[in-house]
Amino acid sequence: MEIKCHKVASGRACGPALVTKDAISFLGNVDARTGIVVDPAHKLYGQCIAGKVLIFPGGKGSTVGSYVIYQLKKRGLAPVAMINIRSEPIVAVGAIISGIPLVDRVTEEIMLIKSGTLIEVDADQELVRIFGEDFLLE
Amino acid sequence: MYLSREEEGIYQGEQGETLRRMMEILVALGDIYGAEKLVPVRSVQIAGVSYKNIGEAGLEWISDLQGRVVVPSILNPAGMDLCRWKEMGIGEEFALKQEETIEAYRRLGVTIDCTCTPYQIYKGLASRGDHLAWSESSAVSYANSVIGARTNREGGPSALAAALVGKTALFGYHLDENRMPTHLVEVEADLQGSDYGALGFLVGRIVKDGVPLFRLRCAPSVDELKALGAAMAASGSVALYYVEDVTPAPTAASEPDEKICLGRKEIDEVYLKYPGSGADVVALGCPHCSLEELKTIARLLQGQKVQKELWVCTARKIADSHPQLVAAIEKSGARVFCDTCMVVSPATERFDKMMVNSGKALVYLPGLGGVQAGLGSLEECIDVALGRRY
Fold first, then answer.
1. Contact list, B32 vs chain A (CB under 8 Å)
2. Rounded to two decimals, what is the model's pTM?
């Protein structure tokens, strides 16, 4: 299954989905040394975002969050790709400076995908590909 | 968003990976805010300088970049005086990281002036109608309002992108439609000096990201306009304001619907709520002191000795070109620090309460500096430092 999207940061990558309806403040919510969500109030608390296709509505919080994404990438702890409903400047800039494919303006039904589903983000073609049968959409 | 053939080439990577990513930043922000195209900028002021703010993550990113800025570019204040950091009580470890950050910017061709008042040291960075990519909130406010130039408040990466590409996306305060006044603010009082900081402190809270148009009884000086804008950018996120018959006027003359009336009582309440009692340090120069302000401070300190630490923050260019003035101030025991200020330096952490004459510092010190703040006029601040009050 393919879904249309809008390119924010170029590139193409594939990995298991990690889905949350909570916005993410990379400064504060995520530990830059481990890639684990450390804010107990966040729905992804305790989960590691490394290697995942991170699906979340958008970013929030301090602009230093852009640099945190870069630090995660340098340590091999960043998501392989990210999908937003609507990207804002912190995550957009973070993805671009880190070379992480980022797309937005997807259907909100993307939030119904089960975490773990294999997903490919092809920012240059402006397509999200969803693999497997039990992917979503009750 | 429309890109010229040359811009499209950069976006596709024809001029290397660094420029490709920088163009991607400009295009992504342009898309998010609905810009039609890019526009050349005359100068850039880059945020993300104090190591206290950017940390290891930011330093790594800046150090990894390859390239040269293509328009005049200077920096926001750093976390310490780049020469006299030891006197500020800054540790070796922080100093080393701060120096690394500055070096990384130098390698990119950035001019190493760390100041929130670029307009006080260079005339050629901004004139009326110019498009800019400036970062520091008080400088943005001054450029938009007092100079009549056009800039959004840039973040670190977007400012660097503008510096390396020489352009920014055309949205926000670059466009006439976003530069219309939203609130009329009438002030029924004669104001001077720190009153403008107190006024800005109040108005920023009310108008938030609006564009206030002030109707004042008296005409503020450029230093007073600097203080007014700085305070509104801190207590709210005001990036543009007008003062009737003083600053460049808005392009359309219609009066805003929202109206705010303030007087002496409201201004005095700010001083009463944030008294200087109990202050163990006094700091002036938020935003950085102008030459005129340094002269006034020197005059007030003449023949006196300070009883409490007194910091006077200014741009290095101003201090370096007036060594006798700096010497006159320091003869009192006060310290003139350059490249930094009380809001961005970790040096404030060893104090309990800081007395300031700035509405901006009043907003930021408790949260960013870990120190309580009291507000007073310049004269009151000097009196506290000299042990004549409290």
1. 87-89, 92
2. 0.92
Look at residue B29 in the predicted model and tell me its pLDDT: 94
CATH number of B5-176: 3.90.76.10, 3.40.50.880, 3.40.50.1370, 3.30.499.10? Answer: 3.30.499.10
Domain B274-385: give its CATH architecture: 2-Layer Sandwich (3.30)
Does A70 lie at the interface with B, CB-CB under 8 angstroms?
A: yes
Q: Is B183 helix (H, G, I), strand (E, B) or coil?
A: strand
Does A126 touch chain B if contact means CB atoms closer than 8 Å? Answer: no
- Closest chain A residue to B13, measured at CA: A10
Q: Which residues contact A16 (CB under 8 A, 6 or more apart)?
A: A51, A52, A53, A115, A116, A117, A118, A119
Which pLDDT value is given to residue A138? 43
A84 touches B at CB < 8 Å: no
pLDDT exceeds cutoff 70 at A137 = no
Collapsing DSSP to helix, strand or coil, B354 comes out as strand
- Tens digits of per-residue pLDDT, B375-385? 999 999 999 99
Domain boundaries, chain B: 5-176, 180-271, 274-385
**Domains of chain A listed by start with CATH number:** 2-130 (3.50.30.10)
Equal CATH topology for B5-176 and B274-385: yes
How confident is the model over B146-172, as pLDDT tens digits? 999 999 999 899 999 999 999 999 999
With a threshold of 0.90, tell me whether the complex ipTM lies above it.
no
Q: Other C-beta atoms within 10 Å of B196: how many?
A: 28
Q: What's chain A's Rg over C-alpha atoms?
A: 13
pLDDT band at B100 (very low <50, low <70, confident <90, very high): very high
